[in-house]
Design a protein that fits this description.
Layout: H1 3-17, H2 32-35, H3 40-54, H4 69-80
């Protein structure tokens, strides 16, 4: 999976959790829970979807690394690369 694929996957899954949000307006460094108003269950669903799409094991201790779009991309690229 390339960096472009990782970014596309992250954006698709964020969009699945919050389809009403225009992701082009979301700062990639912003905390998603605040930027797109998702709750803890939505966040867990997002992490689970990323695991399912990438087969990357994401332990709960790493969740703080995934609170931004750029953090998710960097985390997955590091694990896949």
């Amino acid at each position: 999976m390339t960096g472009i694929d990782v970014r596309k996957t992250v954006l698709e899954e964020v969009n699945n959790v919050a389809p009403e949000v225009d992701l082009a307006t979301v700062d990639p460094a912003a905390d998603l829970r605040e930027a797109i108003d998702i709750d803890s269950m939505d966040f867990l669903n997002l992490v689970t979807a990323l695991h399912r799409r990438t087969s990357v094991e994401i332990p709960e201790t790493d969740y703080p690394k995934l609170v931004t779009i750029s953090g998710m991309i960097a985390y997955l690229e590091a694990k896949l690369g």
